[in-house]
Amino acid sequence: MFWGAIELLPELKYFGKVDDLLKAFVKAVDDVVVHGLDIQLATLLIDTVEEIMDAFMIKRREKDIDFKDFLAPHLYSILIMTIRAQGVFNAFKLDNKEDPDTIIDSKKQCKKILMCLTELSGCEGQTYLQTQLPTIITEYYAKQPVEHIGTWTIMSDKWRMFYAIFDQVNAKDMQMELIKIEADKPTEMKQVEITTHLSPLEEEVKQLAINPPLDDKPNNFFEELDADIMVHPKEFIANKPNGSIPEHSGSDEEDPKEQEDPVVGDVPEGEKPAEIENEDKENEV
Amino acid sequence: MVRSYIRRYIKGLYFELGDWLENSRLRCSNLLLFSTIYSEDYMTQFLDELLVALYKVVIDKSNKLIGDNIKTTLRLIGRYCKPSAYQELIISAMRNEVAAFYTYT
Asked: Is the ipTM of this complex over 0.90?
């Protein structure tokens, strides 16, 4: 669509019509897309950027328009997009596997975009990547504490980006001076007190955990129990008068009304109901 | 002539673009391409739904002819419609803010 939009523009002064579109595209990619790059998304991104670069290159050759000033604010962002996508394409290489054909094609597209960037930026004698190398290293790596770098995994985006950059630089580029930055002051470690709202029960449990109550109870819990319970049931029965099992002597007396069984009470004493008699006979058999 | 009739069948094209038969998708992409060629800036009024339908198909690389037709259609839309008309639609899609448009993910 971007290609179509600039296709009929005759001169550089009309390109202001698509400036907002390009700005919005670059910003959306910087804000959202770049942070969630996987192989499929990186392939789509590289396809899109290649189309945009092709459009500018064709226009440059046809009409001999110099886009250096027009594209200057966006070139660095496009370079970062390309490098990050290239880092994603290195995933197979970092895993000691051969690149599939699609990845090889995408890597070629990345190299083509880098060449287009060099042409469009008007750099002479060195590539656009070489001119921006100190800025990239300073921005992404120089400010990182050494302890943090050690914690990056091999597949983290910064390592892959690092790998992609050093895949394309030579020995001379390694001798470039980095941009001087002011060293950040070491941040003081402050103990932060975490305040949480606990329910009264949780608060009580927390206090009990911190200050356990003094244990006043005797260690042997069974000492306090009734001694009768600790005696063997046979001895208990033998010690009782007449050797009889004591009747239930609960403090709560039963209601005399409840003692009357409405069913059994109707049958006179000495006689059993017919059902019970039948059961007795069956048991005897 | 095309401008007066495209309204009647363009909604069918949105569904046919995602058809499981490759032949149907190919014919549909051809029809859409030639409709865009004849309609020119008249396509602006369909952009909101048309672009969502095209996002789904443009990723498909199984058939090169379909891919080329879709790419050319998008290029022609970019040529005939004003950038301000489709800028918001594209950017919101890139920011993943049009998920409600998709019938499935």
From this structure: no
